[in-house]
Amino acid sequence: MRTNYLNPDLYNRLYSVMQYNNVLALRVSLETGLRIDDVLSLRTENLKGRTIVGVAEKTDKPFKKTLSVDLAKRLRQVSGSDFLFPHRLKKDDHRTRQAVWKDVKKAARLLGIKGNIAPHSARKTYAVELFRDQGISAVQKQLQHDRIGTTMIYAFADLLDQGKKNECSNYDLDLLAEMIAEKVTVRLMGQLQNCNKKTQNSIEL
Prior knowledge:
59% of the residues lie in helices and 6% in strands. The chain is built from ten helices and three strands, in the order H-H-H-E-E-E-H-H-H-H-H-H-H.
């Protein structure tokens, strides 16, 4: 089952009934778009001031992300081993994905939040917010996707979830990409025309 998008306004409610270290892990994913596996495997040395650096496990691509001042401070305060998120029992290992998954699931259930809410929801929330602020190219770059079609599933996760609720589950992503391309073409042509007009006016002067 595909993980659902979660409205940013609901995260504080989740945090209120979750374990603190799991809250921090989810916050890192929400602020950076990193997969929870990559968040949990971060070592103390990967945190440099407000910056975290590492290599994504799934894609083997390096990443560099900036955290909020508050979150970076909290991470330094709880870090007591080689890992930012140490295992509760195993000192030489990091917290497991399942531990965070269970905590998020339990919190969503207690709060009556509908849908398949899981740690991966934070990555989708990040993508939707980034798309609204900076556009699809920024989302593809930050999520390190090779295919724009994959990026669209994340950038439009809120709309896709709404469509699913209304039993509109058959999405033609190629058609969606074509529509976006047409919109981009119109905008670029408009910019080009404005540029040509400015050039022409400067020549006439």
